[in-house]
Amino acid sequence: MKPDSQLHPATPGLEGEIHQGPMYLSRASFFADFYVYPALAAILVAFAVYRMPHRWLAVGVAFVIGFGTWSFVEYILHRYVLHHLTYIKDQHAKHHHDQKALFGTPTWLSLVVFLVLATGPAVTYAGLELGSAFTAGLMLGYLGYTLAHYTIHHWNARPGSYLLRLKQRHALHHHYNDRGNFGVSNGFWDYVFRTNIELHGETLDT
């Protein structure tokens, strides 16, 4: 198997730019998601239940749908935005070159995207309460993705653990770049769209 440097040669000048750009975050900026989104999700769910005390089951279903929807959003964003959209793909390439750097989307920006592209349409079609619950689920799905991506690159995994399987899947993604394994927190949509990559009789460092 060819090393990654032969499959995807380093972009000229990129090495000196790894720690530059809007996707490179300080530790405070990177971990802000872990404080902001749980608090916002709790507020949104509490608001929905308060406004619809007799429809808490509907609120729960909207939350679960939002949470589950994130895995599809994760796949689409990773496959088509992070790897193909001009400028963003160049920023994402820095992560492929320096996998320990804290790359991500600033909390304020991801929050604006949630409000415009998720909360707005959800509230329009499902109402304020159910739209809020859906958004809360989507936010926690996003947070789960962020946590999974961080642990893949920064934690050690026990043999046979789910984290080890995620690390192996993601190592293959980094090795083959935009050929597959776009799901980070899970591989469901890679199987659906036939972009799942597996090794047969070979190993990759995780």
What does this structure look like?
The chain is an all-alpha fold. The protein has a domain of 131 residues. Helix content is 64%, strand content 0%. It contains 9 helices and no strands. Helix 6 packs antiparallel against helix 7 and helix 7 crosses helix 8. The longest helix is centred in the C-terminal third of the chain and has 27 residues. The two termini are 15 Å apart.
How are the SSEs ordered, and which strands pair?
Layout: H1 4-7, H2 27-31, H3 33-51, H4 56-81, H5 88-97, H6 107-126, H7 128-154, H8 162-176, H9 188-192
Helix pairs in contact: 3-7, 4-7, 6-7, 7-8
Contiguous low-pLDDT stretches (5 residues minimum) are: 1-18
- Distance N to C terminus: 15 Å
For the sheet with most strands, the description reads:
none
Strand content: under 5%
Class based on secondary structure composition and strand pairing? mainly alpha
**What is the average per-residue confidence, as pLDDT, rounded to a whole number?**
86
Oligomer: single chain
Report the strand count. Answer: 0
Shape: globular
Portion in helices: 55-70%
Backbone CA Rg:
18 Å
For the structure shown, list the relevant keywords.
single chain, 206 residues, mainly alpha, globular, disordered N terminus
